[in-house]
Amino acid sequence: MTLLPRQKSSLLAQLEVIIPRLATNDLIYPTLTARLKREKSGYIGEKSLDYYLNFFTKKIPLLHDVRMEGQDNFFSTVTAFTSKK
């Protein structure tokens, strides 16, 4: 059961919009396309992990892209399980 669904990062969404608008001979084009490949690869990897997590988490709630605040700092995680135990 997924309480907080996984979403694309804002950087990935921005790169997907910007790159088609750039000319292929632009100086920054190769850098941005390489970054897009890395970001997309990470997102696909996280989504594929969800497939396997759903096998044993039918009753355990999942939270994706969680950011929690501590006293002096922040903690973020890609996937978090919640449990009563």
For the secondary structure, the number of strands is 3
Mass-distribution shape: elongated
Which structural category fits the helices and strands? alpha+beta
Q: Enumerate how many helices there are, as a single number.
A: 2
Largest sheet: 3 strands, mixed
How would you state the average pLDDT, rounded?
83
Brief summary:
With 85 residues, this protein is an alpha+beta fold. Helix content is 44%, strand content 22%. The protein has a 3-stranded mixed sheet, with no helix packed on it.
Describe the structure.
With 85 residues, this protein is an alpha+beta fold. It has one domain. The chain has two helices and three strands; from the N terminus they run βααββ. Strands 1-2-3 form a three-stranded mixed beta sheet, with no helix packed on it. A hairpin with a 4-residue loop joins strand 2 and strand 3. The chain starts with a strand and ends with a strand. The mean pLDDT is 83.
What structural keywords apply?
85 residues, alpha+beta, three-stranded mixed β-sheet, 44% helix
Secondary structure topology:
Layout: E1 2-4, H1 10-18, H2 29-56, E2 62-69, E3 74-81
Parallel strand pairs: 1-2
Antiparallel strand pairs: 2-3
Helix pairs in contact: 1-2
